[in-house]
């Protein structure tokens, strides 16, 4: 799972070694009965361990997508990230 960065090009908190660069990551969201995997999410990605850090706007969009899926009664799905 991913943390939320305070600023760009942060040091990775997982491996405490790598630095992040812009890239994409996959995010797993679980809500009630819905499990959603969203791929190609824009993120700062650790060059050492691959951990992805998603910014606030993107997180909000991910939560929106999760909510839509929950409303539709989706149980498990894998989707591509679509910007709002
Ligand atoms: Zn790392």
How would you sum up this structure, described in words?
This protein has 84 residues and is α+β, with helices and mostly antiparallel strands. It has a domain at 23-42 and 55-80. The chain contains one helix and four strands; from the N terminus they run E-E-E-H-E. It has one helix at 56-71; strands at 20-31, 34-46, 52-53, 76-80. Strands 1, 2, 3 and 4 form a four-stranded mixed beta sheet that branches. The protein is elongated, with a radius of gyration of 13 Å. The model has no long low-confidence stretch (mean pLDDT 91).
Summarize the structure.
It contains one helix and four strands.
Shape: elongated
What pattern of helices and strands is seen along the backbone? EEEHE
Terminal CA distance: 22 Å
State which percent range the strand residues make up: 35-45%
Given as residue ranges, the uncertain stretches (5+ residues, pLDDT < 50) are: none
Q: Roughly how many Å is the radius of gyration?
A: 13 Å
The pLDDT mean sits at: 91
What characterizes the major β-sheet? Answer: 4 strands, mixed
Total helix count? 1
Tell me the total number of β-strands: 4
> What are the distinct ligands in this entry?
zinc ion
- The structure class reads alpha+beta
Helix content class = 10-25%
Keywords:
single chain, 84 residues, alpha+beta, 4-stranded mixed sheet, 4 strands, binds zinc ion
């Amino acid at each position: 799972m991913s943390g939320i960065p305070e600023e760009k090009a942060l040091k990775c908190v997982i491996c405490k070694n790598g630095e992040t660069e812009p890239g994409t990551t996959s995010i797993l969201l679980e809500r009630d009965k819905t499990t959603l995997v969203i791929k190609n999410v824009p993120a700062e990605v650790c060059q050492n361990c691959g951990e992805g850090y998603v910014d606030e706007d993107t997180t909000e969009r991910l939560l929106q997508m999760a909510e839509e899926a929950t409303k539709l009664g989706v149980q498990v799905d894998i989707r591509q990230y679509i910007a709002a």
